[in-house]
Structures are given as C-alpha cells and as structure tokens.
User: Fold this.
Amino acid sequence: IAAAFDETFEAAGESFSELIEHMFPGGSGRLRLVEEPRPARVLGGADAGGAAAAGADEPAAEADEEEDRDPAEVAGVEIEVTPAGKATRRLSLLSGGEKSLVALAFVFSVFLARPSPFYILDEVEAALDDANIDRFLQLVRRFSDRAQFVIVTHQKRTMDAADVLYGVSMKDGATKVVSRRLPREPRLAGAEPDRRA
Amino acid sequence: IAAAFDETFEAAGESFSELIEHMFPGGSGRLRLVEEPRPARVLGGADAGGAAAAGADEPAAEADEEEDRDPAEVAGVEIEVTPAGKATRRLSLLSGGEKSLVALAFVFSVFLARPSPFYILDEVEAALDDANIDRFLQLVRRFSDRAQFVIVTHQKRTMDAADVLYGVSMKDGATKVVSRRLPREPRLAGAEPDRRA
Amino acid sequence: MHLKSITLKGFKSFPERTELEFSPGVSVIVGPNGCGKSNITDAVLWALGEQSPLAVRGQSMQDVIFAGGRDRGARNAAEVEVVIDNSDGAAGSEFSEISVSRRLDRNGEGGYRLNGARCRLADVTEALSDASLGREMHSVIGQGKVEEIVLSKPRERRLLIEEAA
Amino acid sequence: MHLKSITLKGFKSFPERTELEFSPGVSVIVGPNGCGKSNITDAVLWALGEQSPLAVRGQSMQDVIFAGGRDRGARNAAEVEVVIDNSDGAAGSEFSEISVSRRLDRNGEGGYRLNGARCRLADVTEALSDASLGREMHSVIGQGKVEEIVLSKPRERRLLIEEAA
Ligand SMILES: Nc1ncnc2c1ncn2[C@@H]1O[C@H](COP(=O)(O)OP(=O)(O)OP(=O)(O)O)[C@@H](O)[C@H]1O
Ligand SMILES: Nc1ncnc2c1ncn2[C@@H]1O[C@H](COP(=O)(O)OP(=O)(O)OP(=O)(O)O)[C@@H](O)[C@H]1O
Ligand SMILES: [Mg+2]
Ligand SMILES: [Mg+2]
Assistant:
C-alpha cells in the first residue's frame, strides 16, 4: 500500500509541476510531502497522533527535512504554487480563479498518475476568465481519449468543446433533458490528444 | 434597540417578498422570525442561552407560534422561498444560482429598510445564468440613485451596466488600475430608478 | 470503461423515470439556474454510495425523494441506477456492464443492487474500487467544491492520492 | 454619502502608492484572474477594521503586506486609506469627508487614524456606524461569499438586520 502511494505520489508530483506551467505560464509549482504541524508537543509523552507520531521526538525545525522520511509515515501533501512574476507562496492569498486553476491541476495530476474512467465536473470553471477557461479546456480535450468527461456549465466556450450537448429544462418542478450529438471534426479546435501523453 | 429591529425587520420582510417575486417570477418567499432549536432542554434547569432563554419552559411544539412572541426575544431570521411550480421549501436543496438570488434578495431587502451609503459586491453573480444576471442588474440600476455600487465581475452584461469601468491588470506582481467613464444615456437600458420605490 | 447511463426515478426533480445515455468523450450539460443539472451530479454521487445528506444538499437523506411540484404529488421513493460500460474489460470484472443502483423510500428503507442483485454498500464500494472509482469520489467535483482542494488540509489531499493509488 | 477614494500602499499587490477615485452610481471593476480586483475589496474591509486575517485570505495579518515580486523587494508596511464623501451631511458628522486609514508593519505595529488623527478601532467603528456602515460590513460581499447568507444560521441573519437597524 505504501509503495502504491509513493509511486502514485511521485507520478502525480511530476505531472502537477508540468500542469502548473500550463495553467500559469511562466509560473511554477510542486507537491510536497509534509508532516502535519502538531498541537503543543509534550516532551517525552506519548503522542496521540497516530501516523503523525513518527518522529515525535524531533524538534519542529526538522519539518523541512521531510523528504528524508519514509513517506508512509508522513502526514500530508502540501501544494506550493508561484504564479509568474509573483513572490507569494501562501496559497490562501491566491485569487479565486488562481485557486481553481491549482485545484484543477491537482485533480488532473492525480488523473495522469491513476486515471478514473470518468469525471463529472460541475461548474468547475465558474471563477475562470476566458483565457483560463481555454487552458482548462485544452487539458480536457487532451485527456478525453483516456477518460470520459461530463461537464456542467454556463460558459459558452465550454459548450463549444462538447462532443455531445445535453440541454436541461424544468417545467412545473420536473426536469427534462434533451441531448444532441454535435458534428465535430475530431479535436479540430484545440490540442491533439496524442500530444504530451 | 428592539424597536429599531422590529421596524427594520418588518420593512425588510415586505421588501424581501417583493424582491423574491422579481428574482423568481411566479415564485414566492418571506422572512420569518424563529426561535432557535435548542440543544437538549434540561427540565427546570437554568437555560444558558441568553436571549434564547425566553420561554425556556415552553415545549418545543410551540416553536411554530413564534409570531406571538416578543421579537426581541426570538433568536433568528428564517428565509423561506418557493420558486415557481416547485413544492420544495428546503433552502439547502436550491441550486447554486437560486441560492445566490435568494441571498441577493435578502441583501437588497435590508438595504431598502436601512440603506448603506455604498455596496462592494465581488463576483456575486458568478453562479447566475444570463436571464438572472439581468434581473440582478435591474435591481442595481433601480437602486443606484440611492446607493453607490462597486461591482467586481467577469460578466460582460455587468460591465455594460457600468457608469465607470475600472480595468485592472498585473505586471511583475504589481497591480495597475485604469478607469474610464462610460458615455451612457442615464439608465436608458433597464429599469428607471424611480419605479417601485 | 465509461459511464453508459444514469436512470433517475423519484430522485430530486425527476419524478418520472428518466434515462440519460452517455458516450465516451466530452459531454456538456447546460440549462438555466435551477433546472436540474446538479441534481444529475448528486444522483451519481448518491447511487455510488454517498453517506452524507449534506453532500447532496439535503438535511436528511429522504430530502432526495421528489417532493412534489405544481400538479404533481410527492413520490414515496427515489431510485437511481448508474451503468458503467466495461466492454474494454478494464474493471476487474468479467461483466461487460456494471450496474449499481440505490433506492430509498420515505420510511428510510431501501438499499443497493449490483447487477440487479441486492447487496451491501461494501460490495458496491469494492466493485467501484476495482474500477478505479474511489469511495471519496475524487472523480466527481460538485458545484462550488473545486476550491476545496486548495483550502483543505495536507492530510486530506493525501487521502485523495491514496484512494486513487 | 458615497465612497470617494481608496488609497493603497504596500497592501497586497499594491507595492507603490495607488489612489482609486470613485463617483456615485455604478462602478464596475474588471480584469484577468489574479490581477488584484479582490485585493481592492480586501483593502476596504481591512481599512474599516476587519479583525480576522482569514477574512482577507491571510493566515496572519502581516500577510497583507506586499511580499515582493520579480524585480521588487517586499515592503515593510501596508497602509490603506478609505475616504467617504459626506457632502450631503448624511453621516452624523460635520466633516464633509470622513477619512479612515489603517497601517500595519512587519513587527505587528500599526493602528488607525480618523481624519488624520490617531485613534482606536472603537472610534472607527463608531464613526462608521453613524454613517450606517455596520461593523459586520454587511455592505461588502466578498468573492465566493454571497451564498453564505443562505447557508448561515437564523441567528446570524438576525445579526445582519440588527446591525443595519
Ligand atoms: N426532492 C426534491 N423534490 C423536488 N424538487 C427538488 C428536490 N430536490 C431538489 N429539487 C429542486 O431542484 C432544483 C435545483 O436543481 P439543480 O441544483 O440541479 O439546479 P441547476 O440546474 O444545477 O442550477 P444552477 O445552474 O443554478 O446550478 C431546486 O429548485 C430544488 O427545489
Ligand atoms: N501580500 C502580498 N504580496 C504580494 N502579492 C500578493 C499579496 N497578497 C496577495 N497577493 C497576490 O494577489 C493575487 C490575488 O489577487 P486578487 O485576489 O485581487 O485577484 P482577482 O483579480 O480578484 O482575481 P480573480 O478574478 O481570480 O478573482 C495573488 O496572485 C496573490 O499572489
Ligand atoms: Mg448547479
Ligand atoms: Mg477575485
């Protein structure tokens, strides 16, 4: 189990850095294994924290050396992203759109390491401006040969990326759905799926 | 203080019902004073809940009779909305866009009862479809003679409603703002501000 | 392997039996506010075993049963079936289709079925994890939920990776 | 009465002194993701007395001080001034303008000024409530926050009304 995690984490980490360069041209980012910050340590006492108890005797300052630990004992995955030209590394300070881009890069990086057969994405691009919606859709098209995507949206650009469109309406409290396959040159607009595995 | 609350609540309640009819044509809604559901009552014991302690001896079944209580003693404001043709009254089941409409109706109803001099609204219409963005903007224009609105948006329709547009950009981590007054027929498109007080 | 169909009956805003068929590739669902798009997302989460009513915007799980509308009375039960096409054999199963369905009535009675046979939630979870669809449903991102990954604790993101692994 | 100007210096993505002037009516702020629009919203909340770093997306309050960028070093202090035009006399004050400013440096030192004079947060809060701008800032709705009203408890909505009243 630990081996599967390590392998998946490493593959996801590589993909994440590449995907962040796609989402934030000129920017950079990575995934990092970290030990969870613990509540006040009791010297010599038993640590109640389960897996996080590994290394309970080490001073907090060693938290930066977590890459040396056995990953199966570390507590979590930290995300670091620095958009182009900015110095801030605090994720919480990122804008709404920037946070969405980081989250999508994370989801896709786990996908590349271990694909699910389908993804259902409900208005995940609501905070993105047009240029970033395009970056998101390039990834969807690139990966759509390997996984099925079902995307709920209000954005016209996203509608234009559909192979099949489902129009939903409501009458007297009951939903009705009508679907229509769209005539498309396979992947004419946007990335070819065989690029960049 | 209690009198100011009652008066404000009553005025807000009237406006809320009207604004819900605007946001949900054919629908209805109201604000209701309610007593907060309390944790397990201790018979005969002192109620630790402050203002909510009023009426601590009454059985829970009487919570439906809250309109008879002295409003200053009641604990909260419940929102009830039923969109056209639907039977559900559970707010949590409403869609993302519907919740935004309800929240905006609430904010504007408090505004009509007690206007603030300015409102700063950051992407409040992000979940709305075009028809609902128009309903929101009609209210903004209607009320813009009584309060100043500063609205952050990615929506083109909202940009078209501006008297002054501020274009924001970033270079090397620093923000730059350029503003431009838009030539407009005062309130040509959309509601005239003197309609419907 | 891909989602082949979702069939809803009595679930949220779907009083009558409604079958939605899907193909590989990119499917996009559109419509006005409140028309029922996210109810479809909720149906998939629910059929595949979601335990928290809050995750499908309810306060109790019976909230997912159609509550009535103009000219239509409430229904007494909700049922959703999700069919996954396995003709490429990618799931660890010899079936060419995997059907998972869930039902719930107003008395709180109901249960799961796998390929038509009554089973427990644990059987559904196991069949799904063989198909690489984890229990945390990291492959379904609900409305308003995308930024959670950025706001969540490091430990929670680790769980997402572990479940995929 | 209306917002007349916001001046930012060293606050978030505004390393240099930047003054934004506003008029009555409808002002709309646009620009790409991450360019600094919501930082302006945060600046108003902050100058008017916001106590929680989380409300301006920080983990400690010093997070609002410009942290540097390509070719620019970090700043040592953040300062924001909000000027409210009171030429209609609607605020309970004889001043034709009410200026509120706040400063914070990397040592955590700083404070508030009202019309240029150092004062306490309580003085700012009082001046604002005379101008019908409540402490809960119910007239500023931050990004992603609009649905909170619907998800909040009845008691919290009551507070919004009480503060306006
Ligand atoms: N049990 C139920 N019975 C009847 N109607 C229900 C039930 N549960 C939810 N609904 C209705 O479904 C509607 C919400 O649907 P949904 O969330 O799918 O909308 P949506 O298309 O995603 O809209 P948006 O674009 O705003 O996100 C609500 O109006 C709600 O009243
Ligand atoms: N203290 C700081 N020093 C330097 N840059 C900062 C600081 N705090 C925040 N920022 C930067 O400001 C940017 C976010 O700006 P803001 O939230 O205003 O964007 P926005 O225009 O609202 O974007 P969106 O449309 O995505 O909501 C982030 O990239 C962040 O790195
Ligand atoms: Mg929805
Ligand atoms: Mg923003």
User: Anything to note?
Assistant: The CA atoms of residues 152 and 158 of chain C lie 10 Å apart. The helical segments of chain C are 37-47, 121-130, 148-151, 154-164. Residues B 95-96; C 37-38, 143 surround magnesium ion (ligand 3) (CB under 6 Å). The radius of gyration of chain C is 16 Å.
